[in-house]
Amino acid sequence: MELAISVIVGLMILGALYAIHAKDLLSAVIASGIVGYGLVICFLLLKAPDLAIVQIVVETITLIIMVAVVFDSSREESFSKPDTQGYVSAITAVFLIIVLFYFFKISVSALDVFGESTLRMAGPYIEGATEKTGSANLVTGVVFDFRGYDTLGEATVLVTAVLGVLTILRLKGKK
Amino acid sequence: MKGMTLIVKKTTQLIAGMVFMYGIYIIVHGHLTPGGGFAGGVVIAGSFILLILAFGSDFLNLVKEESGSTLYENLAILVVLFLAVSGLLFGTRVFFLNWFPKGTVGQLVSAGMLPLYNIFVGIEVAASILTIFLALIIFKEEISE
Asked: How far, in Å, CA of B63 to CA of A171, rounded?
């Protein structure tokens, strides 16, 4: 299974690289879809069908909106000559990558094996969850019962995002 | 935005209802099978988006649709809050207390308040995503006028 996930992650990296370098913006959008749909297969292989359902539908809707945006504007990527600010940004990005890679190299030896959780709360959550919540699906039991605050926060974030979108996109006042 | 060809319209007529039903199934069985409010809500919003894309924007009254979905979204999050607060009134008086009778594990009506949370969060997610999509379409049509 680790081999399959490695192959899919490699494909996702290739798709992301192609999306950066593609001349045509439509093919760049389609190539960035590889990342999302590859993630769906990774979720399925890691036995998380809850996340896979959400990811596949959200990815499709996002892709539809991006394709509509590309059709509405130009399909050519516009280049401009880099000025001083561009060089400063590029140097900062390279510096950030070096720093992050350095600390990743230090911390990777202290990490656990992939898939083994170190969370202290993970065991008690799993043990008596079905009796405590009465829910056959463990994920729903944790999401809506033990971690109710988190779910309420997520739902509130979604409402706030919609309010922001409506505020920005409203040209005429509502009658 | 114009609609698509006859083939796409016919296929959408056949499929959109089933997608909608699948979303409702995922929400209602959220405490039994994988899925839940978030996943099912996104699927329901997807069925509406499929209809709008296939039949064009003049098939539905978009502004009326948008005000309706905004209303449902805000009402649903309010109901979720009320359900959470209702835990403060019964039993050990804790926020998000699951005070309904639990029933037997595996039945459709079981798990206390979890199905109610699933249903209302599902309505909220579906209405939110539909509202964002409708706002984008209405914005584009207002600009092109």
From this structure: 13
Give residue A40's Cα distance to chain centre: 11
Closest CA to B67 of B56, B79, B75, B57: B75
**Helix B6-28 vs helix B37-55: angle between axes, to the nearest 10 degrees?**
170
The domain spans of chain B are 6-144
Rg of chain A over Cα atoms, rounded to whole angstroms, equals 22
- DSSP tag of A83: -
Give how far Cα A20 sits from Cα of A13, A23, A157, Å.
11, 9, 30
User: Are residues B52 and A66 in contact, defined by beta-carbon separation less than 8 angstroms?
Assistant: no
Q: Which residue of B has its CA nearest to A60?
A: B46
Q: What is the dihedral of CA A32, A35, A36, A39, to 10 degrees?
A: 180
What's A78's DSSP letter? Answer: P
* A24 phi, psi to nearest 5 deg: -85, 130
Name every chain A residue with its beta carbon within 8 A of the beta carbon of B70: 162, 166
Residues A29 and A70: beta-carbon distance below 8 Å: yes
Q: Is the ipTM of this complex over 0.95?
A: no
Output the pLDDT for position A114.
65
- Asked if B32 lies within 8 A of A136 by C-beta distance, the reply is yes
Contact B49 A61 (CB under 8 A): yes
Using a CB-CB distance cutoff of 8 angstroms, which residues of chain A are in contact with residue B81? 152
Q: How far is B80 from chain A (nearest CA, A)?
A: 8
List pLDDT tens digits, range A93-141.
Answer: 999 999 999 999 888 887 777 666 666 777 777 777 777 777 777 888 8
